[in-house]
Amino acid sequence: MAQMIHTLSALRNLTRRLAADRRGVSALITAFALTALMGFAGLAVDVIMWEVNLRSMQGAADQSALGAAKAFRDANESTALGTSTTAINAAYATATQNGYPASSVHVAAYNNGSTCTNSGCIKVTITQAQRRYFTAIFSNRPVNESASAIGTCKGCGNGAFNVTSNGGTPCVMALDAGGTGVKTVTVSGTPTLSLNHCDLYNNSPNTDATVVNGAGIIEGCSPTSPCDSQAYLAQPNVPSGQIDIPVNTHSSPGQDPYAGLSPPTVSSPCTHISSLASLTNVPSGTYCGGSEFQNTAITFATGAVIVITGGLDLHSGSTSMTGTCVTLYVTSNGSSSQASKLNATTTMNITAPAQGIGCPGNNPGPYAGIAAWFSGTSAVTWNGANGTAFQGAIYAPSTDVTYSGNAVSASTCTRLIAASVSLGGTGAATFDNSGCPALAGPTMTASGVSGSTGFTGSPMLIQ
Questions:
Q1: How far is 413 from 117, CA to CA, in rounded Å?
Q2: What is the DSSP letter of 175?
Q3: 171-204 pLDDT tens trace
Q4: Is the whole model's pTM more than 0.70, yes or no?
Q5: Where along the chain do its domains lie?
């Protein structure tokens, strides 16, 4: 009995000593923690690999959607892009070339009721099961990733078409042919340059002299109709971006239609309009410019030639200028202080001299077709709203004209001819020369390009 009691006492003492012993606990905790850490590290590695694969899938989907639109364009099809067998096959072929089997690719027409209607867009979706590396010790369930892209072909909905032309009436011209690297026609932001029965000319031979950035568009009277309009570019390459009219490269420089005109006589001193008894029926003469016309409503006499010195600064307030058979001649000395600025609240209702519009004696005089002539090299910013009566040319042969902001023209028979042209903002710049070559100015001779030019449209991604 005593022996048993002694044994039990010894066991109790041993248990107490073991319970009090902390040696080896850290090793156990570390072992458990390392297991968890390795699990998280393995999950992170797998997620990174899946993300890399997803990026690769997205690139392949983008290429497939663009490839479908390009194939549709090149086939000159007139059916809907989203249901075109040519486009669908091209999407599958592009995805396969990028390493994705056809079984992982789904191609279908896409419609969202706004940017994509009438099956005019095509959607490519690539789905692929992702391989598990470290996370396979926790689960063997597959992880599927998908990437989608939607493509369209702006201007291709009615198939390709040809326009036969040998030059013609310019409505937008960039005359500057010098300076390496100079960009002489720039469309940036979200504007639409719309040309109806007239052409775009860029005389610069520099590569990429014509730039169409962002959501800017150069088109005819609609995305699918050039309305007998073309682009004649002296540069060797076709510009990137959305240009929905036929493009002719290596064109001979277009001739300045107003070259050789003798400018009006500039008298000295100039007359301050504040000294005039009335701002109605203002006659021909030389008037002080700068900001003197700012925030006024002025009407010029029919047939007047109005010379304005020191630029035309209408950058604030509300200004309107009205006149029939009138030419404004604005001089500057090339400095920024004499820059001409027409803000968004400026309204120009100037009708250039022409036959049959009420010129005295039905004689348009030497400046037929020119509504506003900017002489000198100070920059011109035309943000004003052309009224419905504005007709004629904005002519700035020695400087840049920025035509932007609220410059939405509802008028016809309008031209923009400058050393360089920059179109920006969010507005629509409409130049319609249909049926009025005499009012807009002389008709151009051939540009050196002849024959037919195929219109191809612009493959693009919607998302």
A1: 34
A2: -
A3: 899 998 876 556 788 888 778 888 888 889 998 9
A4: no
A5: 37-154, 164-461
